[in-house]
Prior knowledge:
The protein is 39% helix and 12% strand. It contains 19 helices and eleven strands. A six-stranded mixed beta sheet has the order 1-3-2-4-11-7. Strands 9-8-10 form a three-stranded antiparallel beta sheet. Strands 5-6 form a two-stranded antiparallel sheet.
Amino acid sequence: MSYKHAISRRHMLKIMGVTGVGAALAACAPAAAPSGDSSSGAAADTEKKEMSIATYADPRNEWQRTIAKTWAADNPDVDLNIDEIIYGEMNKKQQAAMATNTLWDVSFSGVKWFPFLVAKGAFVAMEDMIAANDPGMDDFFSAGLAGCTYEGKLYGLPYLMHPGNPALIIFNLDLLDQNGLQPPADNNWTTTEYAEMAAAASDPDNLIFGTNVLPGNYYDHCSFARTYGGDILDESRDNFTFNVDPASIEAAKWVTSLRTELKAAPNRAEAEGLQFAAGTLATSTLGTYAVRSLDETIADRFQYDLRLFPNSPDHARGYQAFVECFSVAAQSQYPTEAFDLCVQLTNTEAGVESVLNSSNQPTARKSVWEAPELKDLLHPIFQDALQWMSDEPGPFPHPSNLRFQELQDTWANTSLDLFYGDVSFEEGMQAVQDACQEVMQLPRP
């Protein structure tokens, strides 16, 4: 057993005289498996299965490398190369590796770019491997599996799922108390009650505001639209329904009114530099992924509490699932072994390991959220989120033409004028709708 790292790969390329673009492409990809020379004089290492994995380069994801090393130790016939890749660089590096036929046997992907890679033939469908070696599929959140599915087939196993950026509301209890306010007694509250609380807690003259709700991403608004009983894409995901679906329009009215009518949230100029941790916001949206870092980010500045994002007056709260997963390369010479490594990286034991040894939230398996050994480590809000995500579907709204980044960039460039009230509501809604629908009508890249 041995563990090779990315630096040794680059050093090897340098020795071989690989330069320019070719070196850049090759250096970010794993070493190719050796041809199976079984001559009697070959060293034992040459007979090993050369495999590779790309792990998430972040201290909080050191557990991925720990699990990979343990798996390699349990499979002495494998020589496993473990690379660490920065999340923001992963999509381009996967595409570059595909172009040179050197994609890692196992690699991680985010839901934002995963469907594009699958459409280009990066990964193998897992149904047959699951039939031969079921890793306990019923334990995964359904929305987590949806984020690993493309055109009806599963191409990954999820190791992370959370219910979006605006999944929770965090309360500055000190600011609320100063205004004679309290957070709701439980999660059975509404967007109307939230808006009223935020307005009552605001003091714009002193740059104190009740909330900062703002859908900076189109998929954030998806959570709001689903909370009001609608969606931001149609069922086929061919069309943008922001200004078509009545529930989406109602959700957008609620968000916009926080600034234009209630003065409960900062305008464009006032928002500059405002941070919840600084004590200038009575409430804020928060993702479950940030909860276990709160004692560090807020420290002892003020007391806080958490609730799930409210329901709308007539519909249960909705969400969209952000998913990260591990997949088996279509180019892999050892797909069975690669799938087994994916299973080990996404099982309950790995999930518990990730929580015990970092500030991570629980992983994409319900059993991790319920693990007895984590009970004293996790804020009670995680059990509320578990119930919510178990009861409600929340697939990520990925456009069918795979132009996620173009859609997101268009939203970011057009929606702020609407939500900050710089244009009329009707004009702003139509401008966003037209621009985003134009992207949706483009062919697949």
